[in-house]
Amino acid sequence: MIRRNLIIAILALSVALCGALPAFAGGKAQISVNGEPVTLFDAVIEDGKSMVPLDAFARFAGAEVNFDSENNVMITEENKILEMTVGTKDALLGNKPVTLPFAPVKSEDQVLVPLRFTCETFGFNVGWDSARKTVLLNRIETRDGMTASELLIESNKITQDINTYSMDGTMDMKMRIKADGKEIEDAPQNISIEMSGQIQNEPMEFYFKQKMAPLIQGETPETTMETYMTTEKMYVKNPAQDEWIVQDMPFPAEFWKEQRDIQSDPLKAAEQMKEMGMLLNFGSDAQIDGNDYYVSMLLWI
Length: 301
Hints:
Layout: E1 5-11, E2 28-33, E3 36-46, E4 49-53, H1 54-61, E5 64-67, E6 72-77, E7 80-85, E8 90-93, E9 96-99, E10 105-107, E11 110-114, H2 115-121, E12 125-129, E13 134-138, H3 148-159, E14 164-174, E15 178-179, E16 182-183, E17 190-200, E18 205-214, E19 223-230, E20 233-237, E21 245-248, H4 253-263, H5 266-275, E22 278-282, E23 286-288, E24 291-300
Helix pairs in contact: 3-5
């Protein structure tokens, strides 16, 4: 078996549910994924049909979504491809024609798809808890016999033996910012972030460079920020400044000691992420520079 390296890709989580679930008044249903409640997203109930925003499902399932036109979409995970078109029940699973229980629809700036069909196509078991009005989604994936949590633990053990290392990645963020209960419409809400940096464990130091750009052209200007931190000082530089601004570290020494203690115990680290409302999942395996990688996604729920 080809040996694979480990990638931890941090992404923003989305999830929802799809068709053929019991219909009820109210418009939404709660969701549980592998026994964990999802608090950020709901199933969408419309005319008795249970649906999910397409980008939400794709992020939750670790799938890729591509539009070859305004209404034609392709969902890809590993070697499975599902092609759907807004407004029609005709679809393709691989090269095989299939019929959806109902057609995908557009709602404002997103596409809603039948969730039961979509979830089951990509290996989820879909259940229903009528007492809690909750959709139950379950899927166990493994790589080399390890779940995503077990893979993260093994990865964490390896990094404990490395004092300095580099990291880079990208993250797309879709946000809604409110003040006094009212949404701030002119605040940046859709941002793509490119990150690169170096980390040293002992003594603790790290440097990060973040390039932030709008996902929607013209929504907010592109900007780059650099940050260098020690246990005592924080240095920040942004495009409006020619020099670094230095300030005392806002976190006390006890905070960094606690974090190092947690990171030195992979089980504690995994439990902390769970308490923070994060869910581990696999994305599609990747090949970079001829090397095979597993992709583990850390998702907010």
